[in-house]
Specification:
Distance between the termini: 31 Å
Number of helices: 4
Helix content: 25-40%
Number of strands: 5
CATH superfamily of the largest domain: Winged helix-like DNA-binding domain superfamily/Winged helix DNA-binding domain
Strand content: 15-25%
Structural class: alpha+beta
Number of domains: 2
CATH class of the largest domain: Mainly Alpha
Strand order of the largest sheet: 1-3-2
Length: about 140
Amino acid sequence: MSNLSDVEKIVYEVIKRETENSGGIMQRKLKEIQELKNIRPRELQHIVKKLIKMNLVRRLRVSSNGKTSYFLQAVLKELTKGELIKISLDDIINIPCLTCKYIAICGTSKLHNPSRCSVLTRYLISKTLKSPSSSYNM
């Protein structure tokens, strides 16, 4: 991270903070963050690309109603082989699918598809990006 400019460090810190607080941030929302308002959108886009190339940030494609957006997450810690994530019963009970009005018509070959569901994607991202203390080794 030492080869980042001050502006690039600020952008990374904002993405990192949003990742820790809420699982990440939609790329188009970056320009609305107070610390980043004075950065031109085009420059912001170039900084994000650089952070992705340096493996400091990952960009996930999220589709909703035929529109594609990008969800940014800071790469905090990669799981290694043999490392598990603790999951509580509450995590399973709170899966958005259980209360979704489309559950009866949702499936891999149907109009509503879990792999393209932005609500489910955001939920899973928020659950997988917990602090390092939420995982343990076998």
